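Structure request: Bacterial Ig-like domain-containing protein, Paenibacillus taihuensis.
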Amino acid sequence: MFHEQKIPVWCCDSSVCIGCRGIRDFRLQISFEVHEKTGFPQFSGKLLVKYGFYSHQDGSKELPAADLVLGINRLPEGIKTQIRLTELEPYPSLKPMQEISNETFDNPHGMRVNFPERRNAMYALRVDLLNAAGETVDGKVTVYAFAADEINARMEADRKTYKPSDSLNLKLTNWGPTSLSYGSAFGVQKWDSGEWKRLNGGQTFTMEIRGLNLGGENVEKIPLQWLSLDAGHYRIVRTFGGGAKSIMLAAPFEVSPK
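Returned structure:
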């Protein structure tokens, strides 16, 4: 496997968008995509803000080893709080797998959530405010992802040598234990005068985020004529996010004379 370079990518905050990766455990603030894939409702959260909802981890340990403590400072009488923790399939699936805990609290202070102590896992934490009839009047859903520290992946071309008019099949294999995320963008470099030099192939890329789970493989077809390459030694490079790390992988290949 080729781990050319490890590049830590800091998240902008503890609540970040899908696809961001940090060098510590990170939390993903729920988005429309997550609601759509999990089937959980999309709450406004206005009542939780009004009533003074808060959360913090207990003690000096980090999640998931520490308990998550939740509370509401000014909850009206007759309103209860239901808290559910559900394990999700890795991104981009986000399909609910199993419910870890489900508890309803009369006292809005000191409500605790205990996460399973394992890495490379994602959970949806759902908080519902229930009226006297047991109906949900507001809530909040947050996704927590606890990253593993190990990445084992390989990116390779399907052949060693190509003609300028050929298409290259770029294969990505992920042995885990961490799921990978990446975009459509890639770089092309040429070996020239004893060093790798970046080329501008003029290609355009979309903003999509792709994912590859443990044990997964993906093959992407790249028409080399789009890159206008002459004879020489090249490599395709791409950056991947994996849990708490980011790595750059490279797939070398040769272009023969026309």
